[in-house]
Amino acid sequence: MRIVIASVLSCMLLVSCKDSGEKCAFIPETSSVKINLQFESLEDSLPAITTKPQLVHFLTIHPEVRDLFFNRQNYPSDSAFINGLFERFTNPHLDTLLQETHRVFGNGHDLKSEFEKAFTNLKYYYPDFQPPRIQTVITGLESDLFVSDSLVIVGLDYFLGEGAKYRPSMFDYMLRRYNKNFIVPSVLLLTSIDSRFNKIDLNDKTVLADMIGYGKAYYFTKMMMPCTPDSILIGYTRKEIEGSREFENLIWSRLVEDEVLYSTSHLLKQTFISERPKTIEVGEQCPGRIGQWVGWQMVKKYAETHPDVNLPQLMEMQDASKFFKDSGYKPQVVKVPGKEKA
Is there a contact between 133 and 38 (Cβ–Cβ < 8 Å)? Predict the structure, then answer.
């Protein structure tokens, strides 16, 4: 299925581990780990098309791009589909997108290298893992990512970043993350929530279960990209990630006071887990999805207190309540503003 990452994450800040002051996670020794990554750059192909038969030929030999990325099923007929795409890809404005794509991504070598490093680490932990094919295209800002176990398609023009002439239409707090440095972390995060790796109890509808599920996903991705700052992985600005750490006790106390963890309330999930610019129930500057961040801290604490548990074993754990209790995660409970008794 097509996965649009705007529903998963919100923003990012381009900082290095050195700049952020963060330490790298465990860096595995992968010199003996070999992968064969198929990386196909298609972004020049569609703008080069000058006739409808050429377009039909391209879509015939790339059916995944046709069906999964350009959504053929949304058109009433083949002719309407071809006519619509042909008009788009012969529009002079598309040349600007292509030129900016070349400016930002060059020949794609750096992006391919980043995928190779992450997937090599993944194979270190999961020896049976076979990397998906990677295809890069430009779409005229129609699609951003498609991720499956066998194929990843990247709409590069979605990720041109600040300063690009044409950008996706969305809220600014989401738009900030559409930058080239977000592509591989996003693919890894979407991979890490897949049931192949992240086992969850589907019968557990508590907020805690969601928190642990997301926390495992972030922890997994950090292990694949050990020197990528936490702010990028979760999509917070540096100020937001630093504030979350500084006020962790207050955040935790709000969850405790509001009896969030074992609730199955859809409203509480919307408040603490779902996509929002801010979690104003905690504080005006508290970033959205703060429950996901707390879940990540729980998983980090579990890994810290259980060094004998490897990554695949951790990801297999489905009992969220037991996971939380065994983690020993327990920030200090403090007085929460607005909760003082009269």
Answer: yes
Compute the distance between CA of residue 12 and CA of residue 132 in angstroms, rounded to an integer: 25
Count of Cβ atoms closer than 10 Å to residue 69 Cβ: 21
State which amino acid sits at residue 192: S
Q: Which among 188, 199, 205 is positioned nearest to 317, based on CA atoms? A: 199
Rounded CA separation 146/154 (Å) = 7
Q: Angle, to 10 degrees, between the axis of helix 207-224 and the axis of helix 320-327?
A: 70
Residue 285 CA to residue 278 CA, distance in Å, equals: 7
pTM above 0.85, yes or no: yes
Residues in the chain, how many? Answer: 342
- Cα dihedral sign for 264, 261, 197, 218? positive
CB 119 within 8 A of CB 37: yes
Strands (E), the chain: 39-41, 133-137, 145-147, 151-155
Instruction: Enter the tokens of residue 255.
Output: 């969850």
Q: Over the stretch 179-189, which tens digit does the pLDDT of each residue have?
A: 999 999 999 99
**How much is the average pLDDT of 54-66?**
96
Band of residue 59 on the pLDDT scale cut at 50, 70, 90:
very high
Token duo for residue 144: 């951003």
What one-letter code names the amino acid at 115?
A: F
